[in-house]
Amino acid sequence: MNQTLLDITEDLRSLDALLAESGGEITEDTEATLDAWFAEIETNLAAKVDNYCALISEIEARAEVRKAEAKRLADRAKIDENVADALRERLRFVWESRKLPKTQTARYTVSLAKVGGKPKLDLRVGVEDLPAWAIVTKAEANTEAIRARLDAGETLDFASLMERGTRISIR
Questions:
Q1: What pTM does this model have?
Q2: Measured CA angle at 24 (ends 18, 28), to 5 deg
Q3: What Rg do the C-alpha atoms of the chain give, in angstroms?
């Protein structure tokens, strides 16, 4: 069956909607749709691959726009948090300096309360001046040293270099 460019575009829009419904996961339904689409790929291969790549580009562009909007909103939220923190700190200062009692308003109950949890720790020396029992040492694999030995041809019982995978390049 020879599909027109319009049919192929509509198929891709449907595929995009199907992928969006599944949260971007390749489910049995989406896999079957993709398999069926690729089964017909022999007819007009270049146009189908072109449209498929265009769909990928469109989804990537949409993701970038959404990331930018999420960053913009996160930045705005951070500003709101900073303003709220500054206002809360100013209210705490006024409450402490005037020794105000617990107060009931139309919508809130406001009082000065001690911070819970463990008290803050004031370290007056650097880590190098602490006794050994007061220092935690974290062990981690030296992956650069392991890679260097493997690259030099050494065989290691506990590590090996894996084969590189493949990826599609769309330009």
A1: 0.57
A2: 60
A3: 30
